[in-house]
Design goal:
The chain is 64% helix and 0% strand. It is an all-alpha fold. α2 packs parallel to α4 and α3 packs antiparallel against α4. The mean pLDDT is 87.
Length: 77
């Protein structure tokens, strides 16, 4: 392992992995992973983690994308 950060980006940046586990993470955990990807310029992986995680967020959670009018109003604020 010559470059641990590069290896992490390659392994954890795979959209399949985020699809498998992102829904099991808290909002804070997925934000930390997305932030790491953004810090190295990998926007695609950051968005993948957030998008996959959001599928399981409940109404009122940070990444909720439900169609509840109150949640929509909060997201747009």
């Amino acid at each position: 392992m010559s470059d641990p950060l590069k290896e992490f980006i390659e392994v954890w940046g795979d959209g399949y992995l985020s699809g498998d586990i992102a829904t099991h993470l808290t909002c804070i955990e997925v934000e930390a992973i997305a932030s790491l990807f953004l810090s190295v310029g990998n926007t695609r992986a950051a968005e993948s983690w957030i998008d996959n995680h959001a599928e399981a967020d409940d109404c009122g959670d940070m990444h909720c994308r439900c169609d509840n009018p109150d949640c929509i109003k909060e997201r747009e604020a």
